[in-house]
Amino acid sequence: MITDSRGRRYNVEMQVANKRDMDKRARQYLFKLMEDGFLRRRQEYEELHAACVIFILPFDPKGKGLKRYSFVYTAKEDPSVELNDGSEIIYLNTKGTKGKVKPGLDDLYRLIEGKPTSNGKFISRVKETMNNYRRTEEWRKHVMNTEEVAEAAKQLGMEEGKKEGKKEGLITGVQNLISVLRDYGEDNQNILKQLKQKYGNTFSDKQLEDFLKQS
Q: What is the pLDDT of residues 70-125, one digit of tens each?
């Protein structure tokens, strides 16, 4: 949870798998932010600070191709009428092609997608923070426990398989797992080990090595 200089509260997370309950997950996080910021005695309602949940997603959550989906309460009868309670849920779609986002955020998208980035101040700070974090004990413990991440990527591949056919879906799962583990700082040796554990019964070692080289 992050609080800015104006007291606005944020929960920022990266979700690696497109789960069906993601919207309700976001609502739960938003409620927790609101609950933690409830008024004390003798405070006025105008003192309630804004609360915002931001999910960074390496997939398109709504299939509309937008780089950013911003959700606020609106009137069903007239969506242009907003409920100004200061709450918002934002999905940042790294796969998006429509709409505009700030250059720094676009750079972050490119970093997540494994594409070249600029040398701007924001992305340079992100890279420096990532490198520093990877030297910590917390990071080492996190990397040691990649089962949940791997299973999420595999599940995403299975979901894709329903649309594309079993083999194509499994290949998608392999590619997703490689991408996710690289985002988490794993080297090729450990990634290949995870691939063999998850997909060794389906693909040969040579095939998995080729997938890794091609990604």
A: 999 999 999 999 998 889 999 999 999 999 999 999 999 988 888 888 888 889 98
Number of alpha carbons in the 13 Å side-chain half-sphere of residue 31: 6
In this prediction the pTM is 0.64
Are 213 and 195 within 8 A, CB to CB?
A: no
- What the block records as the tokens of 210 is 């080729």
> Cα separations (Å) of 143 from 53, 65, 180, 185, 191?
25, 31, 12, 8, 11
Give the number of C-alpha atoms closer than 13 A to the C-alpha of residue 97, restricted to the C-beta side: 3
Give every CB contact of residue 195 below 8 A, 6+ residues apart in sequence. Answer: 174, 177, 178, 203, 208, 211, 212
Contacts of 211 (CB under 8 A, 6+ apart): 171, 174, 175, 178, 195, 203
In 3-state terms, the chain is what percent helix, strand and coil (to 5)?
Answer: 50, 15, 35
Interatomic CA distance for residues 13 and 183, integer angstroms:
14
End-to-end CA distance of the chain: 33
